[in-house]
Write a structure and sequence with these properties.
This protein is of the alpha/beta class. It has one domain: Glycoside hydrolase/deacetylase (TIM Barrel, Alpha-Beta Barrel), CATH 3.20.20.370. Helices cover 25% and strands 15% of the residues. Helix 3 packs across helix 4. It binds zinc ion.
Length: 240
């Protein structure tokens, strides 16, 4: 018997996202792969850098953005980044989920907001502050999400910081940073470091794939031409 649900919570009502309740989401700190890839995830921060999209496009860097409902609704900047990454769930109000009696509403409602605002169905959750417990994983699953994405490396300032005692990057490392001042130079340095260590930046969406979705739900994903990093420079910006 699994001990997951602390409280009995109602099943999610039918929603626009069409996401169906499932078993507990799986938490990952890094992706289980032998490929020499690492992943860049950027969380809400509200700092608008006009150079970010050009940098990501020129360097062929895919990102995954975890945004709260508040950010998605009030901060249109993220729409410019859709060509280089997907928008995933960071809850409605950025509350630490283990402290909540009913974390399900924070997660399910954010799914609906992403569908409404971004036109894509999320399948990953980054819990605010990285805080999660068994109830969080169960709630994420009940909201139809597959993965709770933690991180193994962060980029809080100018340099990569390893969360464990690893000496350098390891295959599948997930890097956390935020939309913040100084992000572009920090990423520039980080990408140089990543490549110097023999890694490329991969597309997290290719490794943590949605499970059990219908074609309808995955069709709405933005086209990203960056999966094959080493191939010719693909045109990434629609219309360019
Ligand atoms: Zn956050």
């Amino acid at each position: 018997m699994e001990q997951v649900a602390v409280t009995q919570e109602p099943s999610p009502r039918p929603t626009a996202s069409g996401l169906k309740s499932r078993g507990p989401a799986q938490v990952v700190h890094s992706v289980d792969t032998e490929d020499k890839v690492v992943f860049i995830t950027i969380d809400d921060g509200l700092y608008e850098d006009p150079e970010l999209l050009a940098f990501l496009t020129d360097e062929r860097i895919p990102i995954t953005a975890f945004l709260t409902t508040g950010t998605i609704v009030s901060w249109p900047y993220w729409k410019g980044l859709e060509p280089v990454g997907s928008i995933q769930n960071h809850t409605v109000t950025h509350t630490a989920l283990p402290k909540m009696a009913n974390p399900q509403s924070e997660i399910c409602d954010a799914n609906e907001d992403i569908v409404e605002q971004a036109g894509q169905v999320p399948w990953m959750l980054r819990p605010p502050y990285g805080a999660y417990n068994a109830s969080t994983l169960a709630a994420a699953g009940r909201c139809g999400l597959d993965w709770v994405v933690h991180w193994s490396v962060s980029l809080p300032g100018k340099r990569l910081e390893y969360q464990t005692k690893q000496a350098g990057l390891e295959p599948g490392d997930i890097i956390l940073t935020h939309f913040r001042e100084g992000l572009v130079p920090a990423l520039r340095r980080a990408v140089k470091d990543i490549r110097r260590q023999g890694f490329e930046v991969g597309r997290l969406e290719d490794y943590l794939t949605p499970r059990g979705r219908t074609d309808d739900q995955t069709d709405s994903l933005p086209e990203m031409a960056m999966a094959t990093q080493t191939e010719s420079r693909a045109v990434l910006v629609p219309g360019s």
